[in-house]
Design goal:
Helix content: 40-55%
Number of strands: 12
Number of domains: 2
CATH class of the largest domain: Alpha Beta
Strand order of the largest sheet: 2-8-7-6-5-3-4
Radius of gyration: 22 Å
CATH topology of the largest domain: Aspartate Aminotransferase, domain 2
Shape: globular
Structural class: alpha/beta
Subunit structure: Homodimer. Forms a heterotetramer with IscU, interacts with other sulfur acceptors.
Largest sheet: 7 strands, mixed
Strand content: 5-15%
EC number: 2.8.1.7
CATH architecture of the largest domain: 3-Layer(aba) Sandwich
Keywords: 2Fe-2S, Cytoplasm, Iron, Iron-sulfur, Metal-binding, Pyridoxal phosphate, Transferase
Subcellular location: Cytoplasm
Catalytic activity: (sulfur carrier)-H + L-cysteine = (sulfur carrier)-SH + L-alanine
CATH superfamily of the largest domain: Type I PLP-dependent aspartate aminotransferase-like (Major domain)
């Protein structure tokens, strides 16, 4: 078998497209003026930032002055949650989220609990979907914010965002969604979906790392997270990451202009890969919603397998994948997302996330379907639990 390099971890990060890099390059070496400067050289940089802001706004059906550039998705999440919490403390101290959020949301909520806020962490069903009735019941007269992710970074489940937004809007509660995994993969309209705040990160849709944005609907009462100068209309201090912002604008323009075609191609490969895995590898479970999920996401659990060993062997064959969130892959604890959907520890530990994207071809699917079953069988052959299971007739 000829070894290949196969990148199937697009949910962790993506490469920067050549067109994006090309758009960025002049702002490193030629047009490097500080956007806060009043001379022509600086004003050109300011114009480039505003052009990028317009592109982000167009992609979300927002207004340009509702878009604020950040240092990434985690910063945007922190700003949205802390900013709303502290600015609206006079109205209440209750926040609602879910048990399967990214740690940028969960750890922020845990921090706020230490500051006297109360947080409700909603359960999800076996597919990772919230129950809208549970959400309604959790709301109190002290609730000031609902923060629920658009699509889960591990299992790919897409939440009923428009319905959540409607519930929040009718009750006068701000609604924030971490859309870091969704932008570029799902059509998003912040007006139709009643979204008040939305976080995104460029490196998830073929843009540069270290730059993101927060959509803040006009009229939302929010405190600043970073204090200093008057950048971003006095809401986010710090000299702007000019090349990064330009790159984000170009990347979101590309990602949303051909989203339907992109999704058809990715979903077709994903379905063929998933069907092949389920056919070739017994005792395998699909995690996440079977239909309402991101087009490139596969998350499966193999019984009698330890995920870390699986990743190391896949890497030996040139296959890049994940056992869950890239931000917590160094942890030996089972995924909080997989635990929340009801998987026992031993099954959660045997999970694999394959996330397909623009780098993948049909030959990659063939290669993974050739390699993965062999690796799983090799690891199972080393497991005394699997041996006992088979001796007992596979029950």
């Amino acid at each position: 078998m000829e070894k290949r390099f196969v990148y199937m971890d697009h949910a962790a990060t993506t490469y920067t497209k050549p067109e994006v890099l090309e758009a960025m390059m002049p702002y490193f070496t030629e047009q490097f003026g500080n956007a806060s400067s009043i001379y022509t050289f600086g004003r050109r940089s300011k114009a480039a930032i505003e052009e990028a802001r317009e592109k982000v706004a167009k992609a979300l059906n927002a207004l340009p002055d509702e878009i604020y550039f950040t240092g990434g998705g985690s910063e945007a999440d922190n700003w949205a949650i802390k900013g709303v919490a502290f600015a609206n403390r006079d109205k209440g101290n209750h926040i609602i989220t879910t048990k399967i959020e990214h740690h940028a949301v969960l750890h922020t909520c845990e921090y706020l609990e230490k500051q006297g806020f109360e947080v409700t962490y909603l359960d999800v069903d076996e597919y990772g979907m919230i129950n809208l009735e549970d959400l309604k019941k959790a709301i109190t007269d002290k609730t000031i914010l609902i923060t629920i992710m658009f699509a889960n970074n591990e299992i790919g489940t897409i939440q009923p965002i428009a319905e959540i937004g409607k519930i929040a809007r009718e009750r006068g509660i701000y609604f924030h969604t971490d859309a870091v995994q969704a932008v570029g993969n799902v059509n998003i309209d912040v007006k139709e979906m009643n979204i008040d705040l939305l976080s995104l990160a460029a490196h998830k849709f073929y843009g540069p790392k270290g730059v993101g944005a927060l959509y803040i609907r006009k009229g939302v009462k929010i405190d600043n997270l970073i204090h200093g100068g008057g950048q971003e209309r006095k809401r986010r201090a710090g000299t702007e990451n000019l090349p990064g912002i330009v790159g984000l604008g170009k990347a979101i323009e590309l990602a949303t202009s051909n989203i339907e075609e992109h999704n058809r191609k990715i979903k077709s490969m994903r379905d063929r890969l998933l069907n092949g895995i389920m056919e070739k590898i017994p005792y395998t479970k699909l995690n996440g919603h079977p239909e309402k999920r991101l087009p490139g996401n596969i998350n499966v659990s193999f019984q009698f397998i330890e995920g870390e060993s699986l990743l190391l062997l896949l890497d030996h064959y040139g296959i890049c994948a994940s056992t869950g969130s890239a931000c917590s892959s160094g942890s030996l604890d089972p995924s909080h997302v997989l635990m929340a959907i009801g998987l026992p520890h031993e099954i959660a530990h045997g999970s694999l996330r394959l996330s397909l994207g623009d780098l993948n071809k049909e030959e990659d699917v063939d290669y993974v379907l050739e390699v993965l079953p062999q690796i799983v069988q090799r690891l199972r052959d080393m497991s005394p639990l699997y041996e006992s299971f088979i001796k007992e007739g596979g029950k």
